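Need tokens for this chain, all 205 residues.
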Amino acid sequence: MIFGPFKPFISSEFQIKYATEAWELSGAAALRRAVFCDEQGLFQRDDRDELDEVATTIVALSSFTIVAERVVGTVRIHEQAPGLWRGSRLAVAPDYRRVGAIGASLIRLAVSSAHALGCRCFLAHVQSQNALLFQRLRWRTLEEIELHGRPHHLMEADLAFYPPFGAPETGFLALRHNPSNDRRSSEQAHSPSKDGRSSERPRAA
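Here are the structure tokens for all 205 residues:
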């Protein structure tokens, strides 16, 4: 009997949380280098800068059975001035980009956790090809600029869409939708509610 090639394993659930373990931080750094240096060529050897000294790293962890085993998405946030927060270095592993829920869930935790810490304005420079995703997630473009040789949008999040979330170290679970049970192209995730519990919502992708 001849078997065809096996498809690579793609997790169906992801923990979205602040990076609290050394392997989570190193995995996020490696993913950033792979995306921003090797794939996109925005930086030569390393994309780290002075903001990494003060920024908080957020990760999406894939799991095998019940054990988290790989960083497949990351973003960082920092407070630039009292009440003014920024997000940057949003990256998703190439083999997980079709999942759809990861980028949206990272954005949700980034803004909601900052909101819980007193954020009154949340901004990000977004590569132009990703601006539509952010618009679907209730962000608006303030201006279009060039950054690192690529077109970007300076965008602001609608904080009313991101209720404060006070348990980012634990985070929440994002689920990949099962297409056999639902023909819609959207995916769903457990997103943070105002009281810190998870609630299921459709994910824009």
